[in-house]
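Prompt: May I have another protein with tokenized structure?
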Amino acid sequence: MKFLAKKQYQRNMWKASLVLVLAFALLLTGCAGGQGGNGKTVDNAPSNATNATTPEGEAKGPVKDGTLIVGLTTDVSALDPTREAGWESYLVNRNIHESLVKEDLSKTSAESPQVAIVPSLAESWDISEDGRTYTFHLRQGVKFQDGSDFNAEAVEFNVRRAWDKDFEFFDELSAALMSRTYHALKNVTSPDEHTVVFEFNTPYPAFLRLLAQGSGGSGLLASAEAIRKYGNDGYAEHPAGTGPYQLEERVMGEKIVLKRFDGYWGDKAYSEKIIFRPIVDENARIAALKTGEVDIIQGPPIDSIDKLKEEGYQVPEADLPIVYYLTLNTGNEFFKDVRVRQAVTLAIDRESMSKDLLKGYALPAYSAVNAGSEIFDPNHKPLQYNLEKAKQLLAEAGYPDGFEITLQTYNGNDAYVEWIQRDLAKIGIKVKIESYDYATFGSLRFMSPKVGINTMDWGFVTAYWLYIVGYSESTGRYGNYANPEFDAAVDKALNEVDQQKSFEYWKQARDIIDEDAAIVPLFSGKTLVALGKNVKGFVLPSQNWYDLDKVWVE
């Protein structure tokens, strides 16, 4: 394994990882198909499709042993599954590491509107009748990429590293990121070499989904032997998972090269190598795609999509569980008043933003619950565009002439934050925009009282997302929002074993946070990637990441 580090860049990236621990410990997704219901055992389910066809339905066989190159919008944070931060970091990590369960990403959004949970390193699992105990039966004969055995001890090691303060290899960074997953964990035990038991203080219907997701810590599992050898801080330079690919080389800020892991327990990956290149400038990413320097790019600019399609490039669409939103700082002198927060929400024309600015490649969003969520209701549209009502509320709050406020964002969001700036100017609110690189923005996520607004794009399949952005004990409350009524509804949802009853409590919580205008939903995206003309076997599922092991370049 070769690891080339540019020292100053590495220091900056570690600083970014530290601040992102609290800034991006979010992306947790909920409890959908595959778990079999409380008290039932789930046996082997279909894994990813083995012989994907081309988007045109051609029956040509896959080209194997080539190299696939992916252009990312930013650099990867850490090749450490419980320290990683960001969807793109998870995209890379999940090729090296695996979790007990995973999401079936082999189907398009039309085929599977909500991705199912299926077995991975656990062949099956049982859930107790009270929803508090999960027993996983592990796959046997699996090896980590450093040659060590995957077994119950390795699973328990990973959990205790991010949960047990008395554990020899306890890691505060991992614990901060994994607190959403393990916050209710009472104990983890290994009755035998191939069985792991998780006991929780409350029912925990979201647990399986949380294990299968990423971005701000993940349920992906690392080699205990590698962590013992290199330490918590050194593991990211020498990652060893059980996935289809292993690290060959990393040049910080330039590329990550993965090579196929020949000892993989599952189906052999198609490409011999995958190279991930951070290309921050969106125009440079488009150019790299067109010149053939890369085969796939993340985040194609909206204004480039029609042209790319005309030229024969592939831009698949899906109902992605993502929402672009504003967080309003309730610790700010203006936004502590709910009328002001509602006025801001009412003043933004989200229909026109999605149709005109985003050219129909987005859906207007009106709720904290994003499209793709298990409790999403397309007819739930509180606080729709109403300029006169917005002016009225501002006047009632004592600001008939508006005020000045600072909005903080990260690079690449210029178009839509300038749209917001123009819309809010119509009710007298003058917005000062401060734009930062992603790492610096992460360090500012917990807004000071002088800052009124910041931006983010996130989203989950699970209703548990509401806990993250609104619960008073969650570090995902970047706008300091707190409402005892919201907390009470969330508590009821978390402690309810019956899924449908739990959903009703989550919807009560949704109604409260939407009415409080703690966050301002803007739109949900429908595109994530653009593909070269010769890329085959790619499937964009209803998720913010995708599989690459069955993708090839023709």
About this structure: The first helix runs from residue 7 to 23.
